[in-house]
Amino acid sequence: MGRSVSEPDHQSKRRNTKPPGIKLIEHTKNSNISFKSHQAIVLIVTFLAYTSYHASRKTTSIIKSALDPQTQDETKQLVSSLQRSSALSWFLGTGWAPFDGSNGAGLLGDLDLAFLFVYAVGMFFSGHIGDRTNLRLFLTIGMVGTGLFTSFFGVGYWANIHVFYYYLIVQMLAGLFQSTGWPSVVAVVGNWFGKSKRGLIMGVWNAHTSIGNISGSLIASYFLKYGWGWSMVVPGLLMVVVGVIVFMFLPVDPESVGLDREGVEPRQGEKGLTEHLLGLNSGSENESAVGFVEAWKIPGVAPFAFCLFFAKLVAYTFLYWLPFYISHTAINGEYLSNAAAGNLSTLFDVGGVVGGILAGHISDRLDARAITAASFTYCAIPALYLYRNYGHISMSVNIILMLVIGMFVNGPYALITTAVSADLGTHQSLKGNSKALATVTAIIDGTGSIGAAIGPVLTGYISTRSWSAVFTMLMLSAFVAGLFLTKLVVAEVTAKCLDLQLSSVVEEV
């Protein structure tokens, strides 16, 4: 009797957590939305959400040339350099104090470091909070906060603010709110999609990172001619708009809209490191959130987290320094302009999209996340060597090698931050506890983000002596990243061998 009374109350509570936009659609249709339609809504809304996160993150790299236009390539001796410099001065102005001085590049670097450091630290807290609150509201607050502080940076243009600490504090707060994004979107997608095709789905879905980088660059570059403040305010306000869309339409999990998790269950008999990852029973599900220390103890979390530290160090070094490296390296005897170098560098993101999809698909087919991630990471080492030593031969060679690097560098990065994080966040050791997705995602990506902050800083110092030394650092980082997965790779290979032996025995019988 008690069970029959409590169940309707529980289902009613779940239905009351439906997003208002979903309620409106169902009221208009006069029928409930199907499970697959909810999955489509989740993919679209979270894709838009994290695209806007990356678009707003990319803006500061675009306005650097306006804040400190004196930071030009002094090594180029092209015929058109004088004309380009005068045109650039007319286009960008004379700079913006305090970034227009001799230490302007250093101050801009401090902004990047402060942003990434707060972002990395905030990630750990965001995951902890995300597993204990409504992810839709948490993500909305994070997006609105990020959009506002991104806009506040641009407000300094009209308010004529020249105090460095104003921009430093605004960037730090923007980084803090940005840290809410990744744990939230991965947790939501992980709630809706089972393990069997999660790698491929998340590989395609992860294209939002590259699309966000590209769209952010295009939007900020377009508005730069009206004043650098617009390049910050417009992306910031767009992010607030997307935040409202998230609040209106994002269903956090099937239960929140009155559906069962039947579409999220894996196939019975799946083997390997992440066997039965989503074997959750909604009737006996433990609703208490997993602690930070307990999440670290989940098998596979620490190795993948430390692997991502070095993998993201390599990826973010390219994100922040690739346009600069291209503009300072003669390709077929000619130097590219800053604009052309920036456009060429986007091919790294294109390769990254292919790598993310390919890594996800392969890991699904093999049911081996660690083997796939380690293989891509080790393949990045010769790719880095070839790009450094042969990328200057011709434009076509440079393009091909850049696409290859993007594929092997971003492939494991995308796989670990998406499918692997979702897998481990629902590990069988949690005994049915579903509230670990955001915490595990935050631990893995937060650890990786520390590497993302360190890589560009080291590159800034090392590049003044030798770019070959920078690439040596990147190759060593990729090698160490692969080493952290050794134990997991051995475990997966052993599981595969046991499966083959078992299959052969069954066939003989």
UniProtKB/TrEMBL annotation:
Mostly located where? membrane
Q: Where is this region: Disordered?
A: 1-22
Which topology term describes how it sits in the membrane?
A: Multi-pass membrane protein
Q: Which GO terms describe its cellular component?
A: membrane
- Enumerate the spans annotated as Major facilitator superfamily (MFS) profile domain: 44-494
Compositional bias segments (type: Basic and acidic residues) = 1-11
Give the keywords, sorted.
Answer: Membrane, Sugar transport, Transmembrane, Transmembrane helix, Transport
- A GO term (biological process) for this protein? phosphate ion homeostasis
Q: Which GO terms describe its molecular function?
A: glucose 6-phosphate:phosphate antiporter activity
Which compartments is it annotated to reside in? Membrane
Looking at the UniProt entry, the stretches that span the membrane are: 105-125, 137-159, 165-193, 205-224, 230-252, 301-323, 335-358, 370-387, 399-424, 436-461, 467-486
**Which Pfam families does its entry note?**
MFS_1
The family assignment reads:
Belongs to the major facilitator superfamily. Phosphate:H(+) symporter (TC 2.A.1.9) family. Belongs to the major facilitator superfamily. Organophosphate:Pi antiporter (OPA) (TC 2.A.1.4) family.
This protein is called what?
A: Major facilitator superfamily (MFS) profile domain-containing protein
